[in-house]
Amino acid sequence: MFFKFSLSLSLIIFFLGLLYKISNWFRYKIGIQEVEISASRRFIFAIQGILSTLFSPRILILLKSLILEVILQFRILREDTLRWVMHMLIYGGFTLLLLMHAMDKLITAKLFVPYYSTLYPFLFLRDLFGILVLIGIGLALYRRFILKLPRLKTNRMDLYAILLVIVIILSGIFLEATKMIGYSDYKRMVEEYSGLSDPEELRALEAYWVKEFGTVSPNLREPFDGKLLDKGKELHQSSCAECHSKYQWAFVGYGTARLIRPVGTGIDRAQIPLFLWYVHLLACFGGLAYLPFSKMFHLLSSALSLLVNSVAEKKRLSEPNRMTRRALELDACTHCGTCTLRCSVAQTYEEIQNTHILPSEKIAAIRILASQKRLSEEELRRLQEGVYLCTNCYRCTVVCPVGIDLQDLWFNVREMLLQKGFPEYLVLSPLSYYRGLMKGETLLNDYQTPLLRAREAILAQCGLMKEKERVIPLTPPDSQFQTGLGLSAQAKNFSVCFGCQTCTIVCPVVANYENPQEALGLLPHQIMHATGLGLRDLAFGSNMLWDCLTCYQCQEQCPQGVAVTDVLYELKNLAIRYVREKRA
Amino acid sequence: MTEFAFFIGCQIPARLNQYESSARAVLNRLGVELIDIREFNCCGYPLRNIDFKVFLLSSARNIAWAEKKGLDLLTLCQCCYGTLKKADSIIKEYPSLKEEVNQILKKEGLRYYGRAKIKHFLSLFYREIGLDRIKEKIVRKYRGLRVATHYGCHVLRPSQVVEFDNPIHPSLFDQLVEVTGAESIDWQMKLECCGAPLLGMNDELSMDLTLKKLQSGREGGAEFLCVACPYCHLQFDKVQKRMLTQRGLNHPLPSILYPQLLGLSLGIEGKNLGLEMNEIPILAIESALYDLHREGEKEDESK
Questions:
Q1: A519 CA to chain B: closest CA distance, Å?
Q2: For position A467, what pLDDT does the model report?
Q3: Are B54 and A352 within 8 A, CB to CB?
Q4: How large is the ipTM?
């Protein structure tokens, strides 16, 4: 009754959860296109896409991906053998347990006659599969907590998943062990199946079971004499052996039973087996109900993502299907950290403490963004910085074991966030190169706005730029006036500039304008001078600073050896830091 | 056989497969073995605008990985080259920065010692393999082909740091082009920037500068630009293609990557050099090639 009720309940929750999660794939929106596409339209598009793939030669590609990538996990193997072993142990062992043990009435019992869970080979296989899972979990814990891979993060979802599997397997093993030694179970079985009533016979059978099966009897103690055992064996053969193979076959359970034997009577009296049965059952059913909302959902979403990835050529996918794919991918991420391990800019996290720099950590925040739930302004800014701090090298996408087109996600989320109106100073770096390249291929709304916004945000902190007529007093406004702006030693020699203007004359940017001062503000030699005088506003606020090519013509040709380009580089760093602090 | 840690950076594997494949083919032909280090990260170039320390750390980590494997670094990109060289020289000069960087690298079991050398593949060709050895391997030459050789800023300047060639009158790359029989022309804006560093930040300015270079090259009579940097090539190829409509350019000046130019001359097949992957077609260049061997026979006959 309890079993049926809890199973039905967890199945209902499981299926409702599944529906909810799958409906999200059609509702969540990540895409730069502004056109509204309804969930139902996206659903129809997806069905059309699936059907047209299934009834085309591309089904062969799907099959190949199903075998190599989904079942055999070749993409993980390609990355890391240890991880592949770990994952195959957990997922292989668990799947086999599910099919052979959990669904034994539906599958095993129909395939094998006679089937009893206490018969060899089932007795042995169950323990074998269980121990495979445990070894896999051990490897997972080793990777996460002992090996300490650089920047591999463990979040709550990862812990819950590991914990759940541990509880299921350990409760199973202990349940098996306590049942092996349990006297009440033994007695019940004898009453039900043996039909014995003669006390002598009962004693003989019990002695045999104590000796051979490790039952802990409150009445009998070893050693027993040979005759009694022979008699017991005879009775065992006729009444029990048909359904009971030697318990030694269940090597893990049997070993555990041996260990807890000394306290066997107490365990039985306290009804520990019943308690463990509840724990095991609730953990399994709870896990089932929780599955759509947990990391374990990846067993469906990641498989789908791999299949979609195998047949979806970017240019052929329609926009509604692209949006749906992105939403599916957010669920497909297993937080395995491969992308972060291979990320070209993950090392910057050591200096810039923003976890959203790490690709594997961005996904969770993007999921919230896609669900239209509110992210705090601070969160949005950090995510925006995280997705912008990317060289678009595609490495994450190439290595993702579940085939997520991460590059496409970053690109779309980046553009979505840039429209939200928070200035992003990283747009003023060559990280924008990719955006510039993409402008020719994709229609970017408001391409210029984020660029102007960043410059305006900087200019807003440079009051002097607005008061061009103002006479700057000769007396220093602050102590930094004469010491310059505190650049690092390599860029400190701006003070030896004697204003010969060579830097400005050779600058190709200056040469590009008929009226350079109007377009650029201070010119290179003037910026050197302003820096020497500590006139921060003029140095930071000049377009020249942000339009510098870093071609090093100025620095190469400076007769005084001023590191002009390096000074400009560092002024940019200082300006960004200064404006950020001012705005915070 | 010489071994190098092959530092291909971010742009090449993502956007210029033909640069990687042609460079591998050519280097292989010349007996250079390339070791791939998957742990390499961004050289730090785009990060210089943002944070000095981040840039230093990024470069230092790459150098430390090469050192861990006991290799020198070989780059195909002027910006990677300039950035790595710059960081290397700063860290060598300031022990406190070295200490700071090493504190962070220690977490990954890495250490920057400053022993690994950073090399651009052009200078490897010129200084280590040498023109003579390249000449020996050449089986086909270009005839009457006029090429505008584009050096790229970050290998030339700041010269004290990058130590590549004479920054005012460089000739290394020209000689490498001429070894293939092509003529490396004189052109006014040879040493100027391609404009790529500002693409995405100030597109108009970026394209203004690109346009000037293209015009100058054409005025000098060039049929092709020859480059050895992914940024320069993307600018002269992909961006120039866009400029054809946006800026009303009539005739493109196609850009060929140096290993493509040299590769053809070494007898490597065009498809292994990814010739067809350039956006502005360069296949016509093959018609300027003649076979050295057959040419020799003809000369013998006429005698």
A1: 11
A2: 82
A3: yes
A4: 0.95
